[in-house]
Amino acid sequence: MTKYTQAFKQQVIDFYLENHHNQSLTRKHFQLPSQTLSRWIAQYQYSGSNGLAVLRTKQKYPAEFKYQVIQAVINGIYSAEQATLQFGLSNSGIISQWLKAFKKEGIKGLKPKPKGRPSMKPKYAKMPPKPKTEEERLKLRILELEAENAYLKKLDELIREEEQRQRKLSKR
């Protein structure tokens, strides 16, 4: 839940306007951080009272929208604060998070993360069903022997490479 209601924000803005746009007086009167008051003033100037609206649910934005916002910031079209107003975001901190995720993981970092535990699907393929005919049984046995043969060849190759490496080290 948000810390301030829309009515409170409107009261602060009204006080600010009544006192000749004096931010210092308004900030002290309501005991607000400077950045918070500045953001509310900018939101009010840009969107009127609608800019002060309190969103009841956490907004979810598609990756394409996030990409559009950060590209506008990266390309210097808007500052983070200006983009916040232009795109109707609650604060510029969210843009900073998106930029960080984009720099770390690219467009993939802007996509929503799955909630909950990962699925318990097996990581390996299931064994084929038992053969029903003699021909199927023999084909399966051939596949098993071919796999075993390939494994042994690879193992032999690795052993030989290791022996060559040991010989080179012992010659030095």
Helix and strand layout, with pairings?
Layout: H1 6-18, H2 23-30, H3 34-47, H4 63-74, H5 80-87, H6 93-105, H7 134-171
Helix pairs in contact: 4-6
Mind explaining what this structure looks like?
The chain has 172 residues and is mainly alpha-helical. It has three domains: 1-57; 58-112; 128-172. It contains seven helices and no strands. It has helices at residues 6-18, 23-30, 34-47, 63-74, 80-87, 93-105, 134-171. It is elongated and about 90 Å long. The model has no long low-confidence stretch (mean pLDDT 84).
Low-confidence region ranges: none
Strand content: under 5%
- Please provide the count of β strands: 0
Cα(first) to Cα(last) distance is: 70 Å
H/E series, N to C? HHHHHHH
Report the mean per-residue pLDDT as an integer.
84
Shape from CA axes? elongated
Helix content: 55-70%
Total helical elements: 7
The largest sheet is: none
Structural class: mainly alpha
Total individual domains: 3
What integer value in Å does the Rg equal? 32 Å
Protein name: Insertion element IS150 protein InsJ-like helix-turn-helix domain-containing protein
GO molecular function: sequence-specific DNA binding
Region (Disordered): 109-133
Domain Insertion element IS150 protein InsJ-like helix-turn-helix: 8-52, 65-118
How would you describe this structure in keywords?
172 residues; mainly alpha; 3 domains; 7 helices; 0% strand; elongated
Summarize the structure.
With 172 residues, this protein is mostly helical. The protein folds into three domains: 1-57; 58-112; 128-172. It is built from seven helices and no strands.
